[in-house]
Amino acid sequence: MAQQGRGSGSAPSVVVLSAALLLCVLLLHAQVAESAVFTVGDRDGWTFNTNTWTNGKRFKAGDVLVFKYDSTAHNVVAVNAAGYKGCSAPRGAKTYKSGNDRVTLARGTNYFICSIPGHCQSGMKIAVTAA
């Protein structure tokens, strides 16, 4: 019988470890691949009359909205249903001001407005329902 080399006993362990690592990489990739990225307002960006932008689109929790806008003229505020209806930002609401904001959707309805006076009333607001 031929004598086995020193490393031959660990070959199955390397195969199992490699398979486990590959599985982890595939699972992480699948998680990322499931999320979609949407630019609010498409080419026009976050601007007036974007409130109908969601029509015909399907969103999932974990999808990302990208708000592109002139940061000297607008902002994005995550609000609740009352803030959306009344075009008002409640105290402590998360305000984005970069002009290129990325927001991950939570399950349920996510509400966003521009809090610059008159902008929300002119249609600069969206309600996005994520399944």
TrEMBL record:
It comes from Paspalum notatum var. saurae. Residues 36-131 form the Phytocyanin domain. It holds the Pfam family Cu_bind_like. Keywords: Copper, Disulfide bond, Metal-binding, Signal. It comes from the Eukaryota. InterPro entries: BlueCu_1_BS, Cupredoxin, Phytocyanin-like, Phytocyanin_dom, Plantacyanin. One of its GO terms (cellular component) is plasma membrane. Residues 1-35 form the signal peptide. The keyword Ion transport does not apply. Transmembrane segments: none annotated. This is Plantacyanin. GO terms for molecular function: electron transfer activity; metal ion binding. PROSITE patterns: COPPER_BLUE (PS00196), PHYTOCYANIN (PS51485). The keyword Transit peptide does not apply.
